[in-house]
Amino acid sequence: MPRFITTAILACAAAAPWLAPAPAAADWDKARLSREIVAIERDANGRLGVALLDLKDRSLWSHRGSERFPMQSVFKWPLAIAALQAVEAGKLRLDQPVTIKRSEFSLYHSPLAKAFKGEANAYPVRELIALAAGESDNTAADILMREIGGPRAVTAMLKAGGITGISVDRYERQFQPEVFGLAGFGWSDVIDEPAYRARLSALDPARRKAALQAALKDPRDSATPEASVAFVEAQAKGNWLREPAHSALIDRITLETKSGPDRIRAGLPQGARFAHKTGAGLTMDGINHATNDIGLVTLPNGRVFAIAVYLAGSTADAKAREAAHAAVARLAVSALR
């Protein structure tokens, strides 16, 4: 396992200036946060988990902070770091080509699959990292995770870094069908997504609902809000990677990602910077599996804090679920003092 280093945020500010420390200690009006989060959760019609962590004085507040929530694509942020650790360990190179076959496409969102031509193409590891962490590409994520040794390699990296509240256990091709009661796909299976979606739609609704309720309680592929902000803090401090250029690469990818514009980002003031990773699951039978967002906020006044918002099992529509994220962000900023 790679050697971890701990550097102050100031040490990496040259590579990532938005990570510069806050000029004054941040604190939260915790009574207000605890009071007002109740209404946000009620309006979200689901189980809401939130954690806020000031990066200067480590002041922490959370709501359901130690409860487990399904991550969905949030896992692709630690996956990208695990891949870079493999590069630093000499197991991979950033320019190393990885051949992907058409028969290896995963389910759901994949810009790689949409742009694919022919039966096989090679992609450098650097591009797979950017696709997975920056564009939430499921095919790129599954292939990259396979290259580093599978989901357990990501969980092992997190545990070695002191994060025990995040668990990565399955590939997308395994995990996504199981959420609703279908068997996951193995690497020898060629996924016919239209046929899969037809099978999913044809399932008995009672079976789908029962499977979803079980998935909402499944500790696999889950995270706690408090572990999530600790993970973000470690990235901001440069703890995960030895090479500053690798930390800067992750910072740039997560800062430039365009996903979730109506979630946390929508609740931040103009001029704030937000490096983050979203996650979202399907809605079936009126119940959404997960709508998530975690990241690092740098406010115009220089204050920096990590934030994690998880929403599971919501019966609200997509607009209302994302509005709950924005409401949490607005509350977090206004509760700073």
TrEMBL record:
PANTHER family hit by this protein: BETA-LACTAMASE, BETA-LACTAMASE-TYPE TRANSPEPTIDASE FOLD CONTAINING PROTEIN
Domain Beta-lactamase class A catalytic residue range list: 49-310
EC number: 3.5.2.6
Single GO MF descriptor: beta-lactamase activity
Keyword set, alphabetical order: Hydrolase, Signal
Gene name, Swiss-Prot/TrEMBL: bla
Entry-linked Pfam families: Beta-lactamase2 (PF13354)
Class in the EC hierarchy, top level: hydrolase
Record's signal peptide: 1-26
Organism: Bosea massiliensis
Family listed: Belongs to the class-A beta-lactamase family.
InterPro entries, sorted: Beta-lactam/transpept-like (IPR012338), Beta-lactam_cat (IPR045155), Beta-lactam_class-A (IPR000871)
Name of the protein in question: beta-lactamase
Catalytic activity: a beta-lactam + H2O = a substituted beta-amino acid
